[in-house]
Amino acid sequence: MRTLKNTQIFIYLFILLAYQYTAHAGGFRLPEYTAAGVATANALVADTSRISAIAYNPAIMSVYSPANKQQTSLFSANLIQVQYDTEVSTNSKTTQGTGESTFNIPGLFISERLSDKLSIGLLIHSPFGLETKWPTNTFAPFGGSAALEPELSRIKMYNANVNLGYRLNANTGMAIGVNRYQLLDLRFNSQATAVEGEGVGYGWNAAFITKLDKLTLGLSYRSKVLANATGTAGGVTPIKVDVTFPEMLTIGANYAVSDALTVELDIEHTGWKVYDNLNIRRAADNSTLTLSTNNWKNTLTYRASAQYKIRKHQLLFGYAYDETPQGDDYFSARVPDSDRQLFSVGYQYDFGTYKIETGLMLVKFKDRVVNSSQTYVPANPPNEPNGSTAYNGTYRSNAVVLSVGVSAAF
């Protein structure tokens, strides 16, 4: 149990990094959990060959077999860097977003075999994040009304996920777990007023893995999580807000073409429909302070990967197509989202007891053209101008993701 006892320092490190940095991705989803995930466009839910894939499917820990049968502890630590930029072009000008453009996202997984069939694992990661910031007068229809024009939007959080894995037989395993979402920093600022909060929510997850000769099938499900946050508006008024994070279901098939080459296909369903509105309320009487109507839709992400091994070296490749949950009718510049394609490459070197993994991902966003005819009419209480002419323009984004990780069996 020595390895589990040493996790405290890594958890402290994770919380420190997660509090300082965050990122923006599909909706505000961050699917990159490990360096190998970055290298394979996150197509790992059915990969039983690597420890870092357990972050995507906890059931893998129940069937993973270290080279040395006496090894009972599995470990994976990863650092992912996202470089992200966004801009909007209106009829009169092009404006660059002024939020943070480089983010570091740490991740940690560790497990211990309790018996021949039972394992326990801990995953610390950041599955969601958001950072957009617009300078004043970016959106002309506000006419300089600082009380209404959006400025900083931010979500910083991390998930502590404890799983129990059970090996049904040598080739089949399952896992169940509990998720604790810690919302560290929620910002929903206008140019005149700062709204900030923090909170916590709980959910559950389940996973399954089975190997059928050369074919391996994997499934991972994470429930939606409602985080109840409290904070202040303008540094004075106590507020509360409920943030619902979506459920996620991933299924995948991994096939060993040869001893050297394996390929995988995954499909992920994300239940973004729960992100229907963000209602910031006064704590004193529960009345609405600001309302943002989003009405997002559920989405699918399609992923494919290939891994080619040459002795101690392994080359990794990945591609994914990720749908946006955000329709035109309620488009918000706070999350200027669009469909995207992900192109990934990576490399792994096997030192024996441990492996070093690296990954590079290029994210190609589709330009988002917003041309609404719906005039923004301010209301009381204030309503966000989602889907109105206030946000008309062409939104462009780009992202580069770099990663490095180490995994080991002890």
Tell me what the structure shows.
- With 410 residues, the protein is mainly beta.
- It has a single domain (2-409), classed as Porin (Beta Barrel).
- It contains four helices and 21 strands.
- Strands 1-3-4-6-7-8-9-12-13-16-17-18-19-21 form a 14-stranded antiparallel barrel.
- Strand 10 (225-233) and strand 11 form a beta hairpin.
- The longest helix has 14 residues, at 7-20.
- The radius of gyration is 22 Å and the shape is elongated.
- Mean pLDDT is 91; it is low at 1-6 and 18-25.
User: How many strands, which pairing sense, and closed or not: the largest β-sheet?
Assistant: 14 strands, antiparallel, barrel
As laid out across the biggest beta sheet, the strand order is 1-3-4-6-7-8-9-12-13-16-17-18-19-21
The counted number of beta strands is 21
User: Mind telling me the CATH class?
Assistant: Mainly Beta
Count of helices? Answer: 4
Strand content: over 45%
Oligomer: single chain
Amount of helix: under 10%
Mean pLDDT: 91
CATH architecture: Beta Barrel
What is the radius of gyration computed over CA atoms, rounded to a whole number of angstroms? 22 Å
